[in-house]
């Protein structure tokens, strides 16, 4: 029986295609995929969730939406599931229960392990929901990191995410907000940035920064393909 996995995406809607590109790149890098037949069977759902980044979300409605998406992937009997949205992981418990025993890779678990030993001071770019949930701070502190908190960073990151959602990645305002965040990171001498929102991930270019960047979307894509390889061997 073929090994398949599910991708519950669409949060935000602009992030689905870039994440699929990351999965394809990981296949090429991790096991040398070349031809169409070399790539995994993926069941991808683009499911926009009713998160309210400017106020309080209706938790019941968010959970209902996420659970529906997970159950649709369960129906097609995938071997495991990935959810390329950090804010959705605030509801990981509910998604895990809906998965009925099918593993869901936790985006924070597979991302925090990618920091270098000398990445002592880490700043997190994420939604208020993700930051307030605290799972990244907890995992980073447990791994010996110092989390740099900043009101400016929170507010600018929120503005950046909302602008991306309404204007896209190439908008001039988006680029200026990203430059502000980079300048802040340089000024405060952070060792690494954690990109804890997949809306921001496509802004990372092949540029040289004076700090490391751990991208949660890329981390999850790599982890998904490693999990796929593991299932194929069993």
UniProtKB/TrEMBL annotation:
UniProt-listed InterPro entries: Asp/Glu/hydantoin_racemase (IPR015942), Asp/Glu_race (IPR001920), Asp_race (IPR004380)
Keywords: Isomerase, Signal
Cleavable signal peptide: 1-16
Organism domain of life: Eukaryota
Record-level Gene Ontology MF annotations: amino-acid racemase activity
Any one Pfam family match given in the protein's UniProt record, by short name: Asp_Glu_race
Family to which the UniProt record says this protein belongs: Belongs to the aspartate/glutamate racemases family.
Protein name: Aspartate racemase
């Amino acid at each position: 029986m073929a090994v398949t996995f599910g991708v519950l995406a669409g949060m935000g809607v602009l992030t689905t295609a870039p994440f699929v590109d990351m999965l394809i790149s990981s296949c090429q890098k991790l096991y040398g995929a070349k031809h169409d037949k070399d790539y995994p069977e993926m069941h991808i759902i683009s499911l926009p969730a009713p998160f309210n980044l400017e106020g309080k979300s209706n938790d019941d409605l968010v959970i209902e939406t996420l659970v529906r998406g997970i159950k649709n992937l369960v129906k097609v009997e995938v071997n495991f599931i990935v959810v390329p949205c950090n804010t959705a992981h605030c509801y990981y418990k509910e998604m895990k229960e809906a998965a009925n025993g099918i593993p869901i890779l936790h985006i924070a678990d597979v991302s925090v392990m990618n920091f270098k030993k000398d990445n002592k001071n880490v700043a997190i770019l994420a939604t208020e929901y993700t930051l307030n949930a605290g799972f990244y701070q907890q995992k980073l502190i447990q791994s010996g990191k110092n989390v740099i908190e900043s009101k400016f960073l929170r507010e600018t990151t929120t503005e950046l995410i909302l602008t991306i959602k309404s204007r896209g990645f190439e908008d001039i305002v988006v680029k200026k907000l990203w430059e502000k965040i980079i300048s802040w990171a340089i000024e405060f001498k952070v060792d690494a940035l954690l990109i804890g929102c997949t809306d921001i991930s496509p802004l990372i270019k092949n540029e040289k920064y004076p700090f490391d960047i751990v991208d949660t979307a890329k981390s999850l894509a790599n982890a998904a393909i490693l999990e796929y390889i593991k299932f194929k061997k069993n």
